[in-house]
Each structure stands twice: as structure tokens, then as C-alpha cells.
Amino acid sequence: MAYIRKLTSGKYQVQIRQSGLKTISKTFPRKKDASLFAAQVEADRKLAQSLGDPLTSKLTLTNLIDDFIEQYNKKDHDINTRLNW
Questions:
Q1: Is the distance from CB of 21 to CB of 45 less than 8 angstroms?
Q2: Pairing mode, if any, of strands 2-6 and 12-16?
Q3: Which letter does DSSP use for residue 78 in this model?
Q4: Residue 83: pLDDT above 80?
């Protein structure tokens, strides 16, 4: 959700917050610029989520290791021991 507020300096600050993601904050001289920025960031986040962007999805080391083991086809027999460690 984007919030736009007018600062005492006359500029406009945009704060975009979404659960589980980093808060984005930026200041603009015009409210129109702030609104365009907020709309673009929210659209980019929605697109990234719909495409399964790894930055916005929950990815754990365990999942990465499991995926690696499934695709691993070399002759290193100690790889499971090292990854389990």
C-alpha cells in the first residue's frame, strides 16, 4: 500500500509498505511525480509476484539444497554429506 504525504518543505514523500517486503520511501517535488512512482512500484511488485520472483517469494536454504540434489548428476559421492552439514 502506498502512502503519499506532504512534508513541511513542500515536497511529497511516498512510502510503500507490503507485508514481508522492504519498505520503499522516496521524496518528490511534485505530487504527480510521487503518484506515478507509487503506481509504478506497486505494478512492478505485482508483476514480480505473479512471475514467482525469488526476491518476493519465501526461499530457504533447505529448499535450495533439495533442488540442487534433485538436479545433481555428478560422481561426487560425498556431496550429500557436505550438504547435510
A1: yes
A2: antiparallel
A3: T
A4: no
